[in-house]
Structure formats: C-alpha cells, structure tokens
Automatic annotation (TrEMBL):
Catalytic activity: 5-phospho-alpha-D-ribose 1-diphosphate + nicotinate + ATP + H2O = nicotinate beta-D-ribonucleotide + ADP + phosphate + diphosphate
GO biological process: NAD+ biosynthetic process via the salvage pathway
Keyword Zinc set for record: no
Homology family: Belongs to the NAPRTase family.
UniProtKB keywords: Ligase, Phosphoprotein, Pyridine nucleotide biosynthesis
InterPro entries given in the database record: Aldolase_TIM, N/Namide_PRibTrfase, NAPRTase_C, Nic_PRibTrfase-Fam, Nicotinate_pribotase-like_C
Entry EC no(s): 6.3.4.21
Protein name: nicotinate phosphoribosyltransferase
C-alpha cells in the first residue's frame, strides 16, 4: 500500500496478488563447488523450437569472449567457478527471471563477469535477463561501475537493452541510506528493503490514545497544560482543500451540522488553538476524507472496501498532491490542519466553560 512494487514473501503473493520478486541467496552460491555438479546441461530456446545441448559450455564461451574485450581486461579475468556454476544452474531453472546476487566473492572481478556471461548465453537462446543484486560494499560505486560494464557489453556485442538491466541494492537499506546515495549519484534502479520496513527504528511504537469527544450528543473536551494534548470536541467531518496548482493546501474540520466547504467558495480556516493563525482559502477542489466502510449496527450507509490496488493508487495520488517541502526528510514544512470559524468559537467557548476559574488571595 505504501508504494512497494513487489514482495519477496511468496505467501503474500499468493494471498493478495502482489508481484513476487527476489534473487537466490548467498547460501545457494556457496552450495556449489564447481561446474561438474551441473549434470543436466541442456536448455530449450525461448522459441521452443530448438534445444541447446550444453548451456554450460555456451556460457564458458561467452566468458572467454568477455575476457578478450580490451576495455574489460582489468576486471574480467579469472572468476570464481563455483559462483559461475550457481548462476548457470539458477538461470537454467529460471531462464525468464534470471537475476543474480553478485557479491558472494567479489562483485567486479567475479560476480559481474559471471553474470554477464550467463546473461549473454541466455540472450543467444532468446531470453532476456532481469539484472543483478548488490547486498554489500559501496553501493554507489559498485552500481556505477556495474552500469559502465553493462554499457560496454551492449556496445561490444550489440545486445540491445543490456545497458538497461536492473541493478537492485539491499543490505539494511533505510531512508538515510537512499538519501545519501541520491546525493552521491548512483545507478541503482530498485531497493530491497526488509529490516527497516518491518520495524521503524525511528518510532518502534505508535503512540495512540483513545479520547472521548461526544457522548449522548453532548460534546466532551479534555484540557491540558500541554496544548498538543487538548482534544477537539464534538462529532466532526474532515475535508482536504486543494489549490490552483493541484497541491493540497490544508485539511479542515467542521462540526457535524455545518455546511460542507465548496469549490470556489471563500472560507476562513483557523488554527484550533492559536488565535492569530488564520487564513482565507478559495479551494479549487474539495475532497471529503471521512467515509464509512464499517457501519456496525448504526444503520449508516456503508461503502464497499477498496481493493489493494485501489488503496495503493490512492496512496500514490495523495503523495503526488503534497508539496515537496512537506515530504522532505530534514525539517519538513508542517502540513496545516484547521477548523472552521464556527468550530473554533465552539471549542473556545466549551474550553472556558469546562476550565475552573482560579481565585487569588
């Protein structure tokens, strides 16, 4: 829902139809000792009309061609044979989904040459590889170098699309990592995020507390010396107001019995607790935020639950509607949540009626 394109969890793919993506593990590469372990060496062409009887030899032939390229000789020399065997075995099992984890031994001197050899062999049989995954090291440098190699291979062997193969990065990726990579410059196309998605290290617990705002049609309000803990009383409805450029200007709450804001209609928006913070807004678009998806026994009309795809698209659309200064990681501009003038007056009148009057002696 938050914007990921795929999952490595196959059960999530089975249950919810989320695209499943991933590579083999380091353990898979380490489990091979050499090319002689691959006993079945035949692989059918993508057309289904022919069979390559020795895909292993075809890959070795392509590796020799790569090692003969003058601009690659500094890197593409002797590679790890057990890694090559693992890549070949994986490619023969998944010829249409070949994506290799290239950092088990040495990314630039073994992983990338071995991947390129297997990818070129697959290409000869009509298959297109997906790309590689980096799971350690200097991700900016390694991705940039890898892209250079892919470009050289495409130009040298006239393999269309090779320079555009996907480079995926993993290894405890978090927001700060991506921000640092963007500042350095990199060639990573996608990020595999696990640990820091499952547990938010910045806020591992979500602080939510239930507060009563109305009972038996009587508005209730909690007061506090901490202004952020003062609640806004009564049943309310919320709306998002959009400006001329299409960005969300602010959210506004109104009392249940007030008229809803309308497009093109001037509206006074007030900070719920700060008297001087107020502004007139002429919304170009108004979006109602509260919708009933579970009515219980209330008898209220209930909307059907949206699909996962619909929720995901709404999330993307809402992010696009936010100004960049609201979304930046460092010192973001606070997004405004306002109340109508009527609700503002009601809040403060109730506040005065509920707060005890002190006595000085």
């Amino acid at each position: 829902m938050g914007g990921f394109d795929a999952t490595s969890n196959v059960d999530a793919g089975r249950r919810f139809g989320i695209p499943v993506r991933g590579t083999h593990s380091h353990a898979f590469v380490s489990s091979f000792m050499g090319l002689e372990e691959i006993t079945n060496r035949s692989l059918q062409y993508s057309s289904g009309r022919q069979v390559c009887n020795d895909f292993v030899s075809l890959t070795q032939e392509w590796l020799r061609k790569l090692q003969a390229v003058s601009s690659l000789r500094g890197y593409f020399r002797e590679t790890n044979r057990s890694e090559l065997a693992a890549f070949i075995s994986y490619a023969m099992s998944f010829p249409t989904q070949f994506q290799a984890l290239v950092d088990t031994f040495d990314v630039l001197r073994s992983g990338i040459p071995n991947f390129c050899a297997v990818a070129l062999a697959l290409n000869e049989l009509g298959y297109k590889s997906l790309g590689i995954r980096l799971d350690s090291g200097d991700l900016a440098y390694l991705s940039n170098e890898t892209r250079k190699f892919f470009c050289i291979v495409e130009d040298e062997f006239a393999v269309t699309g090779f320079k555009e193969l996907i480079i995926t990065a993993s290894n405890d990726i978090k927001e700060e990592t991506i921000d640092a990579l963007n500042k350095q410059g990199h060639e990573v196309d996608s990020f595999g995020i696990g640990t820091h998605l499952v547990t938010c290290s910045a806020q591992p617990a979500l602080g939510c507390v239930y507060k009563l705002v109305e009972i038996n049609k009587h508005p209730r309000m909690k007061l506090s010396q901490d202004i952020e803990k003062v609640t806004i009383p009564c049943k309310k409805e919320a709306f998002r107001l959009y400006g001329i450029e299409g960005y969300a200007l602010l959210d506004i709450m109104k009392g249940e019995n007030e008229l809803a804001p309308k497009e093109g209609q001037r509206l006074l928006c007030r900070h719920p607790f700060s008297e001087s913070k107020r502004a007139y807004v002429v919304p170009q678009r108004v979006e109602q935020l509260f919708k009933c998806f579970w009515a219980g026994n209330s008898g209220l009309p209930q909307e059907p639950l949206p699909s996962l795809t619909e929720i995901r698209e709404r999330c993307k659309a809402q992010l696009k509607a936010m100004r960049s200064d609201h979304l930046r990681g460092l010192n973001p501009t606070p997004y405004k949540v306002s109340v109508t003038a009527s609700l503002y007056e009601f809040i403060h009148s109730l506040w005065l009626s509920e707060a005890p009057v002190g006595e000085l002696r």
